[in-house]
Amino acid sequence: MGAAVAEATTCHTAGMRLSVSLALLLAAGCRAPQDTDAARVSSRHDVQSPARRPQTPRGSVVDRIHGVDVADPYRWLETLDDSTAAWTKAQDAHARDWLSRVPGRDALRATLRPLFEVESRSAPLRRGDRWFFSRRRPGDDKALHFVSDVGGANERLLIDPAEFGEATMVRDVAPSPGGRYVTFLLSENASDDATLVLREVATGRDLDARIEGARYARPTWMPDESSFFYTAISTSPDVPAPQRPGTANIRQHVVGTLPQYDRRLYGPLGDNQSFIWPEVSREGRWLVVHRYREFTRTEVSVADLRAPVFELVPINAGIEERGHAQVLGDRLLFHTNRDAPRFRLLELDLADPEAPWREVVAQGQGTLEGVHVSQDAIVLHWLDKAHSRLEVRDLGGRSPRTLSLPGTGTVSAIVGTSSQDDAFILYSSFVEPPQWHWVRPASGERELFWRQPTPIATEHMQVEQVWVDSRDGTPVSMFVVRRDDVERDGERPTLLTGYGGFGVSLTPRFSPTAALWVEHGGVYAVPNLRGGGEYGEEWHEAGRGPNKQNVFDDFIASAQWLVDQGYTRPRHLAIRGGSNGGLLVGAVMTQRPEMFGAVVCEVPLLDMVRYHLFGAGPTWIGEYGSAEDPEQFRTLFAYSPYHRVQRGAPYPPLLMNSADSDDRVDPNHARKFVAAMQWATPRANPVLLRVEAQAGHGGADSVRARVEHAVDTLSFLRATVGR
How far is it, in rounded angstroms, from Cα 676 to Cα 688? Predict the structure, then answer.
């Protein structure tokens, strides 16, 4: 599940300030001396829509669960029938009408568009004598996918999303080892469900038939490009969506044959709380299968593909650990938290699996976030105080040395293979836009390959890392980003965002909307909550299952710190979160409603009693627990935001951003919570449900849709927490 945190000018030139009008729009106090009080929204009541909220019938459903009566008055909104569809359409229209009345939207749109339309690109993947990469040029609504000679000559378009229609998303483009073929996934309305396509690079012709049920496919090729392995799930309408993860199985597709003849090698799992995927070693001898259970345990099995009979042999049976394995020759390198909550690197000789494991890299002071193996070196990605550090060692784990980075930021990707002596790293920070650096790990060489342009001037922004004491005394780190001249006068519109789950780390990354917010006098804050992975598996465990309340306490303490330090006051403090982060903001707004001036909640989980019955819900039971278990039910029911809504509580304004094709977190969470909040709050208090059309859990894949999403979100914040 993924962590989900989102993104009339006088000049758009880098290094120059955007116009005063945007500063007025965000009501964040621009540097310029102009008096703009007339243009400000002094109260959220100033932009009320005259249209009445849609009416929502309140039912009388009450379930008796483990001896507790659990009311569910909006159970009818779980089913997307005609009445629910009509209600949703009316709610979306109401939200858009309210948002359309916020002054300055045209100026905001004109300012945001160039921020989102700047060029973006991936690093080149080298396969054979070809480079494969994606690029979105200014004016393109979606990224295009290209192939060229190594070095960039003879570039040509390989995949244009337009050939599949506006509603179809192209993702997970992956070339074969020699660059002869490329696979990619097609998703309707940017949903998770996908179809796999095989394309011949030289001709641009699609081969064989499309493979359905490719939601978790991740193709991995034999070196001779004759076949690939992938994960498939059932597409039968007789299998409910929450049960489909349990049908996952590993298959082998031979190029030139039809998918119905693909060989099934492993599965189905019969377990809705697990994920599996295969990985072929570079030489093609070993097939490694990862099975992830409950986000806390990884079971690794290996098959010798040269053996006369296919047999998967477990290599860590009975060991409680989480990690990722990769093969180098006959060496299996395992990045794991086995007896090391901040992770280490172990090695097993596959030619002699009875031999003991050997430690290649010991646990360090930081968290070992990832391991990349190149031709003659190992690159270790460490998190030190929640930001990236790269270290290089030889293939035996010796001779450590630092691979320099541009600053205090995040390495989001290392692109390369174990057959290459170089790689590309993707780096950004709160004040530095995404940039690809070419590196040669063994020598430590690094040079800038590409940097994303931005019209936002960031040289006057400063980033501070502070430590906040949570409710139980646990220190929690938080990044605070502001302009260097911003005073602590208690009047700063402040945006606090977080996640706190699934071991996901929130580290310094560039966001155009966050940078824009800060450029015009706002404060942006990101705490590293328990439940994340910034400080290792113990940090994750401290916010998982029965410990989930720690996540909410950490976030509330972070909000209180911002108030106590004079950055803002509750009426100017907004919180934002998506997916598991949507659960976060839903929980804290129902526990401490008086602390916040506005809430932006996106594609969230909010009914924690019934979440496991919908979408991909069963796969998260290991993270949250299940109401089927009496003890876990008590924990879930205690913080479930939907069940905590009380009439008359001083809830802040709410913008709920949902997506019509979200097949990961069912949109019924958003519908039910909005209905409950509208029942609980006066009509003058905005409770808005905005529904993104042709969008999945990660949102729409077009620039146009993302711009409009940002316009609506920032308009809502301006109208609620603006000065």
Answer: 12
